[in-house]
Amino acid sequence: MEQPTWMDQLPGDLQGNEGLTQFATIGDMGKAFIEREGKLAESKTSFDDLTVKLGNSIPKIGDNPTAEETAAYFKAIGRPDDINGYKIQKPELPEGMPYSDAVVDQFKTTAHTLGLTQQQAEGLYKWFMDGSIGAHAVDKETRAANLEKASTGLKNEWGGEYSKNIELMGRAVQKFGGDEFKKYMDDTGMGNDPVLIKTFYNIGKAMSEDTLILGDRGAKDVQRGVDGRPLFDYPASPEMKK
Known about the structure:
It is a single chain. By secondary structure, the chain is mainly alpha-helical. Among the domains are: 5-53; 212-242, no CATH class. Helices cover 55% and strands 3% of the residues. The longest helix has 41 residues, at 118-158. The chain is rod-shaped and about 130 Å long.
């Protein structure tokens, strides 16, 4: 191919370069250079974008990943670095329903171990609490129904003695069980059991201040000493009635 005349101006080592002979004028060569620079700039931008995308991509893990591979995967999908990264909001709870921060921390620990994201953990916790609140409401309704059933049955059985018998039952529960046992009965619903109520009523009746059960001799009125113990009416008693 005949060399363009403008190439006569080039240094000797460039004259006759076949790559330059394709340009008829110096202007044509300049335009080509500018176009090539533009394409190189576009290629660099595309390469940088691709690098960012690859950096943000989710790595694939095999069937038996190492701890490091698993951690990298969880991090890529958005798992917080530690359990403190989970933001769990305490829901509005009905009156009487317990709430434990320790249980929430256990939930966060499990969520982190499973690799859950904030959105996944939050959604799962909401599902769990919604179910717990619903179960609490059902339990409360069931206890109320059982209490009404037990109350109605005992009222029919005891008639006008109902209030007095319930008071006597309560004194027996307090004496032998105390506040802790009373709370246990309330929490478990056992306090609504007619059999248990009548059992403690019988205990209360037996421990009545005016009556003492003396084995198979039945009940009788007794006098009591200064310490509150009964004064038995037989000679062997060290506190024999004077």
